Amino acid sequence: MIADFARKLENIINFIPPIPAVIVELIRALDDENSNMGTIARVIAKDPPMSMNVLKVANSAFYRLANKVSTVDHAVKMLGVKEISMICVSCGAYQALKPPRDAGTFNLQEFWKHSVATGVIARTLCKELSVGDRQTIYFGGLLHDIGKVVLDRFAHDVYKIVMQITHDECIAMIEAEKKILGESHDVIGGLIMDKWKFPFVLADIARFHHNVSASSEQSRPSVALCALADELARLQFYGFGGNKGGVILEETQAFRILAGIAPGINNIDMYKLVQDLETLRDEIGEMEKILTG
What does the pLDDT average to over 70-91? Predict the structure, then answer.
């Protein structure tokens, strides 16, 4: 099975749908230091569905803006160029991988709740520790498991076996993936991000969130934040992809690396931080619905 899947995997990577052209233009604009709010708003306005998503997200309970946002220009002004751009990039990535109607998929609702919760926790840690860029960290958390979507979208029948094994044998999905497929979602996620020319930090978060120490020195703090947030999200039952059993947070690669960068992490009550997610349950659910709509 592994040999057969290796050949199929090559085809998946070669023929994965291209990211929408407007997303490519948006990423280029983000990289251009001469871009401004007007530039970003004009790019987004070229794509009506994307514009609608921007307004939905900006007006959601997740952001809790005092006044209703009615135009893309206003949304960019209220949330900022980078935040709005990352919203579009995230929506565009998953829309490109959206399965045909009535196609079999894993539980996308649970997947998205885990992804959003990971992003929220990562951004909270980023603020608490003054490590990394909050917008990049949040969307890194949101996109860290994109490889799972790719595998499920293009190899659903095989991936069902992987998911069944995670539950039957009570192991992490990444272990089951390697056992059945010979490859894992983190590697696939990194390859897809590279193909789509996403910002390198987002690609590194996808590729190394299960092996933080292998990431580049430049991206390692961001990767570590998202990897730790991934673990923490599971503690509040925002889990997706198998059970690794009792994880001791302080013994994870991510925690140890962050402790070396920001010793203040030892003073954070991680379990209280996770429990506080309960107050955001509705907001997380709302964001999940928007992003899967």
Answer: 89
